Amino acid sequence: MTDSHSLFSSYEELVQNHARQFDPQIAQLQQLVTTRMQELRAAEQTLVDAQAIELQNIFNALATDARCLLPTPEFRTFVQELKQTQSHNWYTRKSEFSIAEDPTTWLLATLELPIGLSNYQIHEDLDGYDDERNYIGYSYTLSLRFGSVEHLIEILYKRIYNVNDCTETSIKEQIDYYIWGEVEDLLTNMPYPKEQQQQLAQEISVLVGYSSKVFAFKPRTAIFEYSSTTQEQ
């Protein structure tokens, strides 16, 4: 019978040879990657900071007068796509958006009062309940200022019931179900004819809905992932 020493000796010698040959190289490679990533992050930070400054400039512009978005190509595209979007939820309005595809021609663009949007925040509700089930809810709030009147709007955009059951509302549904009514209420006491109030409610609601996409912008950072190689036992 082969003794245990001779049975394992060849294997152990191979393991030791492997460790001597590859462990130092792997450790050196890991150090090189770590050092290089630190160099890249340091070089990247200047550009990330510049992005953050530009985003803050955009947010400041929205707080001053969000109508600065009206002539942008991105907003015009958003409006065009929104007008073509159909919603199948029972709670959405049956009427389609009657706003013009060119936002620069909107009634909103002719007003003297500024439309300020600010204080965008994301919220998590761990105790949500919809009369049937508990859920984790995600919403965002932002402040809408129309002239001297300011109003906080809250929009629920995601519900998680369990791992395999999650519902999200589209931008159109957010506008239709959450934003539009709030804006209509805000305009009730404004000195505009009823027809103009309805038109302004549509236009402002679309502007608020689009702004949520802008407020969600974050500075872009480079991503690199690798698995640290460890010795298998």
Describe the 3D structure:
This protein has 233 residues and is α+β, with helices and mostly antiparallel strands. It has four helices and four strands. It has a four-stranded antiparallel sheet with strand order 1-2-3-4. The protein is elongated. It starts with a helix and ends in an 18-residue tail after the last helix.
Compact description:
With 233 residues, the chain is of the alpha+beta class.
Number of helices: 4
Spatial order of the strands in the main sheet?
A: 1-2-3-4
The SSE string, one letter per element, is: HHEEEEHH
Low-confidence stretches: none
Q: Structural class from helices and strands?
A: alpha+beta
Overall form: elongated
User: N- to C-terminal separation?
Assistant: 28 Å
Number of strands: 4
How many domains, in number, for the residues?
1
Q: What radius of gyration results from the CA coordinates?
A: 28 Å
The proportion of strand residues reads: 15-25%
Kindly state the mean pLDDT as a whole number?
Answer: 87
Helix content: 40-55%
How many strands, which pairing sense, and closed or not: the largest β-sheet? Answer: 4 strands, antiparallel
